[in-house]
Amino acid sequence: MVGKVEKICRERMRILFKLASEELPRNPSRSRRYVELIKRISTKNRVRIPKDIKSFLCKQCNLPLIPLKTLKVRIKKRKYVIYRCLNCGACRRFQLMKG
């Protein structure tokens, strides 16, 4: 059962991610700050960042990864997907499902 604090934290993380994505074109530093707040909420309350948010955060530069704006997506040998941050060049790999 999900606790009350955990539920509030996840809701707040989703709101902050939405704000970070909207603010990125106008003010990247504010967007970076929102991502830092998401990470701080996660560590202070010991709540995992939801996977749908975590996979779209750059670990190096703390920017939200938005396709065609800050993210380049590539598929290699039909085995995995590569996300490359267009700001810092950081690379993340996600294995494709077998079957």
Structure report:
The protein has 99 residues and is of the alpha+beta class. It has one domain (4-95): Immunoglobulin FC, subunit C (Single alpha-helices involved in coiled-coils or other helix-helix interfaces, Up-down Bundle), CATH 1.20.5. 42% of the residues lie in helices and 17% in strands. The protein has three helices and three strands. It has helices at 4-23, 28-45, 51-54; strands at residues 71-76, 80-85, 91-95. The chain has a three-stranded antiparallel sheet, with no helix packed on it. Helix 1 packs antiparallel against helix 2 (28-45). The longest helix has 20 residues, at 4-23.
**What is the fourth-level CATH superfamily?**
Immunoglobulin FC, subunit C
What is CATH's topology name?
A: Single alpha-helices involved in coiled-coils or other helix-helix interfaces
Q: Give the uncertain stretches in residue-range form.
A: none
CATH architecture: Up-down Bundle
Number of helices: 3
CATH class: Mainly Alpha
Mean pLDDT: 93
| Number of E strands | 3
Helix content: 40-55%
Strand-residue proportion: 15-25%
Strand numbers in spatial order across the main sheet: 1-2-3
> Structural class per helix/strand content?
alpha+beta
Gross morphology: globular
Q: Element order, helices and strands? A: HHHEEE
Annotation keywords:
three-stranded antiparallel β-sheet, Single alpha-helices involved in coiled-coils or other helix-helix interfaces, 42% helix, 99 residues, alpha+beta, globular, 3 helices
